Amino acid sequence: MARMFALLAFALPAAAPLGLIAAAPSSSAAPAPPATSDSTTELNVLHWWTSASERAAADHVAARMSELGLRWVDGAVAGGGGGPAIKVLNERTLRGMAPKVAQLNGQATIEWAEMGLLLELDGVAKRRQWARTMFPQVMAQLNVREHVVAAPLGIHRINNLYLNKAVFRRLNIELPTHWSGLQSAALALRAAGVTPVAFSDEPWQVATVFETLLLAEAGPALYRRMVEQRDPQAFNDPSVERAFQRLRDWRNLAAGPGERPWTQLVADFAAGRAAMLIMGDWARGELGTLGLEGGRDFACQAVPGTSGVHQFSIDTLAMLAGNYSAQAEQEKMAELLGSATLQLGYNRIKGSVPVRRDVPVDELDYCAQQSYQLFANPATARVPSLVHRMAFDEVGKNAFIETVHRFALDPKQTPAAAQRKLQGLLRALGPKSMKSVQATP
Ligand code: BGC
Prior knowledge:
CATH topology of the largest domain: D-Maltodextrin-Binding Protein, domain 2
Strand content: 5-15%
Number of strands: 12
Radius of gyration: 21 Å
Bound molecules: beta-D-glucopyranose
Distance between the termini: 25 Å
CATH class of the largest domain: Alpha Beta
CATH superfamily of the largest domain: Periplasmic binding protein-like II
CATH architecture of the largest domain: 3-Layer(aba) Sandwich
Shape: globular
Helix content: 40-55%
Oligomer: single chain
């Protein structure tokens, strides 16, 4: 499928000229290594991992690749959540400068595969027995029309509440597990001059917090009807209004309005300038690079109301087919990404957990073990993250983020009005088309 479309509709050059690759936006990226004479071993990788831990995790992959004679040519585009990276990927592809490898998660992967732009990795998946070794939920994300179209890297959990233990201990405040406890802890923290909550007005961050609150208020079954089935009726439920109200309350516990990168929130939290943080567990990876350990220095809990639920996003790298000149190298890289050793090494830095069922769980840190075991348990409700591309296509996801963001920034907009806007949006988006429906196994 990919071969036909890619050759007819989108004949991309064999390899983007290196000068052009270097010119692609990569603000906080490490400088691309100099070109070597053997360009066939080079794979230009477009991604958005630019924080210290993300960088270290990507470097880990690059180092393992070099042991196999493959060179990771870095094409990082700064911007948490990947909005800017996807824009650059679109631009580069339209201009015939597509990278060989791109971070393309969930629904974005499906969209690109449907256009015939991705290399099918069925051979790799079969050789390395991915169907047997990987979680079924992971395989479901990689499969488009019975073809494996990306290589998986790690499973992130989104519905995390982090508590800075040193701050709570110093002020003699009990670690809260419920909303009421959180509210009284927040009052005590404020009284002691500590900002209760680290929060950013960056649109994707606001919406990330919101989707965890929506899950908390709606519960997994209704949440699924909302984001997996995209059922507009489900958005009539009063839990949506409550989730908006919670978002407002949570934001009011922060230092003040302002868009800040997520890494700054993590830095504030690590230094004890803020005591609580709701964030995907890439934050835990970052805390690790700052020397903090989960369980010991900070508590990793589920957002109240979501314990026992795993709201996930899965990071994957897709191989762009182009004219198939790099197919062998791309397949080699995909094999590496799925291997047990790489999975452990990479995920321990990144904050996510391995996509395989057969990794020694005791080699993960305390918080990662919790996430991994929860995800691995067939009885767990595993629900997809909307904001991190597991459920909506790029257009729908962006519209959702914008609706939530507007509410957050407009104190005059009531939660009920925001709910109506969300309902309107869902009706405008229409039901999910069958081709992109991914039932969570
Ligand atoms: C990605 C993570 C990344 C995070 C922050 C998420 O969408 O899945 O890998 O660390 O964004 O940029």
